[in-house]
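Regression test attached.
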Amino acid sequence: AAMSRKGKKLLVDSLTRSTKHFTKSEVECLVKLFDTLVAKASSQFAGAGFDRTVFRDTLYNAFGMTDDVVLDRVFSVFDSDNTGRITVEEWVEGLAVLLRGTLEEKMKYCFTIYDLNGDGYISKEEMFQMLKNSLLIQPADEEPDEGVKDLVEIALKKMASTYLFIPFLLQDYDHDGKLSFTDFETAVREENLLLEAFGPCLPDIK
Amino acid sequence: KASSSLEDVGESSSETDEDEQPIRHQEGSTDLSPEYWGIQKLAKYVKGGDPTATVIALCSMRDFNLSEETCQLAIKDTGCLEVLINLLDTEEIKCQTGSLKILKDISQNILIRHAIADLGGLEIMVKILDSPDTDIKCLAAETIANVARFKRARKTVRQHGGIKRLVELLESISVGSSHQAKDTETARCAALALWSCSKSTKNKRAIRKAGGIPLLARWLKCSHTNILIPIVGTLQECASEPSYRLAIRTEGMIENLVKNLSSEHEELQMHCANAIFKCAEDEEIRDLVRKHEGLQPLSVLLDKSENKQLLAAVTGAIWKCAISRENVLRFQEYKTVETLVALLTDQPEEVLINVIGALGECCQEEENRGTVRRCGGIAPLVKLLTETNQALLVNVNKAVGSCAMEPENMSIIDSLDGVRLLWSLLKNPNPDVQASAAWALCPCVENAKNSGEMVRSFVGGLELIVNLLKSNDKEVLTSVCAAIANIAKDQENLAVMTDHGVVPLLSKLANTNNNKLKRHLAEAIAHCCMWGSNRVAFGESKAVAPLARYLKAKDPLVHRATALALYQLSEDPNNCVTMHENGVVKLLLAMVGSTDDTLQEAAAGCIANIRRLALATEKAKYG
């Protein structure tokens, strides 16, 4: 349903305040873009609104993001009220983090993306899911999954404070094999490159 | 040339130039280290993974101690180094960044540096300097700084436009904004890279052509020590080029250099002092150092005697600044000479050379010659005449010679056998050592008690010095003439020198264009005339005509010496004829009105002799 001029102005104002990263005119542009995209979508799919398909198309066109698993997750993150549709508020707020987020905001965002089942931890299985297509060349004599499992171990060792890998010491170690947000945050603060450790989910600088 | 340790400072002396392919030291067992296996495993994922997997592997690789040689070599041996460099060539910024972080650390290893250059890594890093991403430019610059520690690498950087890009990178940051951590880091890395590269002469020029000099001047004003150090490092490296020295003068850099002498960081102080050391060859710079109150901080820094590199730089700067008399007078106020004398013992060679150079200059002032004696400096100086380092010897000779201008000092020098030691340095193969020894002998011979006897006591000494007239080195010839002029004041010694053929040897030198040689040669001839038939002999060996031409030179000191020589020579009638034929009278007439008494008298005396002969000839002809 179309919004009145006044309604739109109130929306823009409130969004500018809440997201903090955009100027008013930028918010206006984003809202306009949203309307355009929804209009285009509804001409193709009756009453679809801004759904998963439209979203994935948009992100692909705008940012070149192609990974299905990731795109799915991004949609879920944007869709904070879990309606299966993105509202204009969710749109602007989501983009605020994607385009202009502080390191803290981006860390939270990425972690949520990678936490596939939303339980507050990135588990080995989840890492495996995300990395399983990352090895392009596998030595012939190895089982295809061995490499990925190994890579998961490497990532875990690098980032999990609670995962102690001390092969030669007979020590009880907390072999819980998962990353908490604190683990993730600490690792990323020390090495920014690990922000998108399990797959690109932020737009490229280019 | 052994004239100064300046050349050493100019040639990256702090690091040995590693131009030859470095040799690997194969130690102990051929078993591969655990690091090797760990790194090889990670290399597999870097080679075979997509960017996501690559980044994970690269980050994990940095958990190894990359400053340890075993790890560094493991990266090379597993073929991982090639992979890292290939990554640089992709457009994946995260992979490039991850790779550079590793390369930056391992390029501290000399074998790795050479390998990186061999694999074409430098070209790619230079290209990365064009990237819009600041972090990656910064990493590339710092890695280039590490790799460019050998000549071939520096050349590669220049040939691929690296110098220009580094200058542009530094230019793009404004000095004021350097409270921003990222800007500070970028500036630091760019400056480090420029410093590394500046060790090659062609690069010094390239930096200048790219507009680097005003840039260096600008950054000299910043307050971050870790940016200042490479900036001053670059400046002092380049200060061997006259164009840089000119700019240092005109762009007001001396003021900043002096200011930073008082920094808390000894490394910065050292580079500032070295820059001044190199620049102070120029008189205007010596004046500027004084005007900006730089002499006192230099003197104060002499107390930091534990840091030998700093001490060498400071003493070097003091040495060159002391070439100007006004600076010496200021140094006297700060009791610098006393401090310098204390540094004559227990110091490494590079410090000693400069300390003695400084003392040599300071002792051009009479007061300081006394100071050196009172502080017990003469004995250590004389002792150093037995050293073998040629640059050191040149300075010691000069210092001893300066001191010998005081009779009181001379007796100490003599009692310590100093003159004999100087004399034997005439046998040194290095012409600079020979010349400086000969110069030093002049005041010795002049001021020693029983000088004539002393000289005679040196077995073969007179023959030795006369034979040096056969040298090809102008400075040797000039100094030896000066010494002979002094020695010849003693009749017996003059007789001996005549026996050794001093007359024809001196005459052979007469056809010279060098004013300094002309002067001392004429003096030598003047004094050598006073024995036996030497006057006639000079005439016969055709010395007179060339001497006559010396009067046309513009140098008043040449005129005076020549007039003296001609006067002596004119006692022989044949010489008068030669002089007359060469138009001497007219030239000497002009000098009769000179304010220089000696010249006046000599000129007049010579003309009188010539006229007397002319008159006698007339009388004989016409009865």
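Expected vs. actual: identical. The domain at 252-334 of chain B is CATH 1.25.10 (Leucine-rich Repeat Variant).
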